[in-house]
Amino acid sequence: SSFTFLWQAQTEMETSYRVFVHLVDENGQIIAQSDGEPANWTRPTTGWAAGEYILDAHTLTLPDGMIDARLALRVGLYDPQTNQRLSTDTADFALIQLP
C-alpha cells in the first residue's frame, strides 16, 4: 500500500529529521514500516522554508492475511542522531486509523 503525506514547515529547522511510518495492528504491534528523509531522501527538513508544503510518499508491504485486520498508521519525525522523536500535543506520533 502507498501513502502520501503532506508536510507543512512552520519554521526553518537546524536538524535533518527523518520520517517514520509504522503500520500497526489493534495491539500496537508494528506490521510494516518505512523510515527515511522526506520525499524519498530528496527533501531534508533542513531545506524546508517556513510555510512550504512537501509531498512525501511511502510504500508499505502488507503481510498476507492482514486484509481484514484493524490497522492504523503511526507517523512522525525523529532525529537520526539521537532517535528522539518530535512530539505532538498528545504523543510522539500522529495516529491515523485506516478504514
Offer a quick outline of the entry.
The chain is mostly beta strands. It has one helix and six strands; from the N terminus they run βββαβββ. β2 and β3 (30-36) form a beta hairpin.
Polypeptide structure, described:
With 99 residues, the chain is mostly beta strands. The protein has one helix at 38-41, and strands at 2-8, 18-24, 30-36, 53-59, 72-78, 94-97. The strands form 2 sheets. It has a 4-stranded antiparallel sheet. A hairpin with a 5-residue loop joins strand 2 (18-24) and strand 3 (30-36). It starts with a strand and ends with a strand.
Salient structural properties:
99 residues, two-stranded antiparallel ribbon, 39% strand
